[in-house]
User: Fold these one by one.
Assistant:
Number 1:
Amino acid sequence: MLLSEFLDSEFVAKPFVCVLGYPVSHSRSPAIHNAALACHGIPVKYHAVACPPAEFHLIPGLFALPGFKGANVTIPLKEKIVSLLDALEETARRVGAVNTIVPDTRDGHVKGYNTDVYGFMKPLERFGNIASATILGTGGAARAATAGLIESGCKSIYLVSRTYRVHEMATMNPDVVRLVTYDDLEQALRGSDLLVNTTPVGMHPARDRSPVQERLVPLLKHKIFYDIVYNPAETKLLQQARSEGAKVIGGLEMFLHQAARSFELWFGKAMPMELVRDVVIASLDENEATA
C-alpha cells in the first residue's frame, strides 16, 4: 500500500507501526512483528507502507498521527529520512543512517535509531575477530556494517560501489576504509577474510542475479560470506559461496536480530525469536512455492 493510500485508510485509526521504503512488497517485517505483537497481547498492528520519492513529503504527516507507535525504515530511505527526525541516538548519528524510528509520547518528537549495526554484528560473533573485509554497496546497510566492523577492530575494509562516492569518507575511518569500484573487486576479495553483500542484487523477484561475476566466485573459497538479502533465504550468491566451501551467513540472521532490537525499543519487550524465525521461514517457503 502506498503511503498516500495508507494515510487515507482505516488502519490509521488504530495504533500501528510500519516499515517505510520502496519497494516493500517483499518485506517479511509485518509477518514477524505481528506474530510478536500477538504473542505479547499488544493491541498494535504492523503494516508495510511503500513510499516512492514523490510521496516522501507525506512522512511527517504519518509521524503526527495519534496512532503512530514507531517505524522501520528500509531501502532507499535510511539516509534521507534523517532530515525529518528530531533527534538521533549515537549509533545512528555515527552511521548517518536510520532503520528504526521511535516516537516520544510526551512531546510528539521522533527519534532515529540504528539497530542494523547490532543486527549485523551478532551473527559474526561466532567467527571471532575479522581482520579484513570487502563490502559491496555504500548505502545505509553498508554504513552499518562498516561501523560495526571498525568497532570490533577490523583493520582493512574495502567499500565497493559502481561509482566513487567521496562524501562517504566523512563518516568512515580513512585509515581503515578504502573506497573502490567493481573494477577492483578481485584485488579486494584476495585481501579479505569476509565478503558482505549489502546491495539488493539477488533479492526477490530477481533471484537469479548475483553481484559477483562467476569468474570471481572461486575467490570465496574458505572465506566468510555474508549476504544481508533474506528474501529469498538462499540467494544465488549464497549458493555460489557455499559451493566453494565458504562459511556463509544468510540475511535472515541480521534481519531477525535487528528486528528484535527495534521491537524492544518500541514496546520494552523481548521478541520471541524461535516463534518469529518459524514465521518468516514459513513465509519464505510459501514465497518459494509461488515463485
Number 2:
Amino acid sequence: MENLAEAFLGLSREDFSLLGAIETGMRTHEWVPTFIISKLAGLSASKSEYRLQHLFEKKLVVREAQHYLGYQINFDSYDLLALSDFVRRDQVKSIGERIGVGKESVVLEAQGYASLAIKFHRQGRTSFKHVRRLRDHLKDKPRVPWLYAASLAARREFAVMEKLYPKVSIPRPVAISRHALAMEYVPGPLLNKITLSDPEEGLRLILQEVGRALDLDIVHSDLSEFNIMITDSGPVIIDWPQAVDAAHPHSDELLKRDLGNVLRFFRSKYRIDMPLEEALTAVREAERI
C-alpha cells in the first residue's frame, strides 16, 4: 500500500468493524459469508453489504462467489487493523515513509513517544510451505492460514527480541499487534551500504553480538551484511524471525552458516581472511563474557 496513513484516515469505525469481523471469520472459513460478517460486526445486512462494496472498491477485501458470496482480507487491510490497534493503545501517533522492504516484510517509519520502525510481516501464500517446513513456531500448525503465519512469525520475532534486549545490540522491542512489530527506530546504514574505517574491529564487534545472543540460547539463522546496521555506538543486528533456540537440532549448522555469511562478506570487501573456527572461538569467548 502506497500511503497507509491516508488509507487509515479514509476508513470509518464501521469499516474497521467489518475488517475485524472478516479476520475473525477467517479462523474457520476460507471465504467468510456475508451473514457471518454482519453478525460479527454488529451491523445490519444492508449496512454490511454497502460498506463491504466500499472496501472491495478500495481493494481492501477480496471476494468470491460460489454457492455463496464470501470475503477475505488481504495484507493491506491486515496492516490497517494492526495500525488501528497501535493507535487505540496510544503506542503510535503518526506513520511515515517506507524505509525497508525485505523478502517477507515491509518496514515503515512511525512516531510514538519516540521514533519507531514498524515491521509488517509478509509471509504469504506462495512461501508458506517453505515457512512451515523451516520454522519452529509453525511446525505443529500445518494448516495455519497464510495471514496467521505472518502473525505467528511476528510474535516469534517479538518474543526473541524481548529475550535478547538489552544484552544484545538490537532495536528495543516496543509493541506487537497481529503481524506488525513496533520497535525503536535505529538510525544508520546497513553493513553492505558503507565502508568501515576499521573493519577488523567491526568484525570483532559483530562476532561479540553473535556470542551474546548465543549466551541467551539464540541463534539468528539468517545473519548477513543485509541485516546488520552500523551506528555510532556499534553494530545493531535486526531481522530475527528465523531465530532458533540453541537446543534446536540444527543450531550448530545454522550458527556456522551465519558466521560463514559474515566472514564471506569481510573477505570479499576488506580482504580479511578469518577461518570459520577462529570466528567460532571468538563467538564462544564472547558467550562467556
